[in-house]
């Protein structure tokens, strides 16, 4: 009959989810009479697999004597056109990884059973003796001294008082150091120091997680040592002086930072020999101290 129409539910053009959806149809004529409903099914199949992205390959350092390490790695990143995706990796994060290279396989599976996978490598190595290049500018003072006793005559007052004591012309003996020479100089020193294994591990852990490594060094106060060596000889053309070889030892504190947080620290002694022209009579002693040290450092890791 003209003027009739059909009603569908869900209607044409609606979104149909993954799986089976029943559609019901009813015909209505111009007088409003409805037919018996009929049904049919629309099945939407998910044939598109998920996408998955594995972490980048990375290296884990262990101390000498270790056979491997427990490694925690980031989860893979996955997406899909439908919810319900599950992912897994083997060996799992938190597993023990032996020395050498281990391939990790990660799999993503959606609710329809579509699967995809990716792989990455974890390499476990024994930490080696990497080096740190240091440039030092060291300022030193050297004094040649001798303990002696002198007599002083004067007027003496009571401590913290203006009252003059009797016998104000009394001689008093005072122990002092007689200074024969006083030399100040500056020396530039370049050295490589070995980085401890535990520090290497901390540095690598920082870089594996995308951190930024910086390094600084400073001289430990009151830790400068000296030793007067043999082969002291007269200084040509300078009467009364000698060329004195002296070994200096400076103790440094090295600190590595990961994104401004302390990652590790260690001490490193720096030794160098300086030949200094001094008035150095027999029986005198040499005193030395560092007055200022500038310390520049450069990462110098070996492959």
Structure overview:
It is built from 1 helix and 19 strands. The chain is mostly beta strands and 303 residues long. The protein folds into 3 domains: 5-44, no CATH class; 51-126, Sandwich (Immunoglobulin-like), CATH 2.60.40; 131-147 and 178-300, no CATH class. It holds the Pfam family HYR. Residues 44-126 form the HYR domain.
* Helix-strand sequence: EEEEEEEEEEEEEHEEEEEE
Strand percentage lies at over 45%
Characterize the overall form.
Answer: rod-shaped
Termini Cα gap:
88 Å
| Total count of domains | 3
Per DSSP, the total helix count is 1
* SS content category: mainly beta
Percent of residues in helical segments? under 10%
Alpha carbon gyration radius: 42 Å
Question: Which parts are unreliable, with pLDDT below 50 for 5 consecutive residues or more?
Answer: none
User: Mean pLDDT, as a whole number?
Assistant: 81
Let me know the number of strands.
19
Largest sheet: 5 strands, antiparallel
Give short descriptive properties of this protein:
1 helix, mainly beta, 5-stranded antiparallel beta sheet, 303 residues, rod-shaped, single chain, 3 domains, 4-stranded mixed beta sheet, Immunoglobulin-like
Topology diagram in text:
Blueprint: E1 5-9, E2 19-28, E3 38-44, E4 51-53, E5 58-62, E6 68-71, E7 77-79, E8 86-90, E9 95-98, E10 100-109, E11 115-126, E12 131-153, E13 171-194, H1 197-208, E14 213-219, E15 225-228, E16 233-234, E17 242-258, E18 261-278, E19 285-300
Parallel strand pairs: 5-11
Antiparallel strand pairs: 1-2, 2-3, 4-7, 6-9, 8-10, 10-11, 12-13, 12-19, 14-17, 15-17, 16-17, 17-18
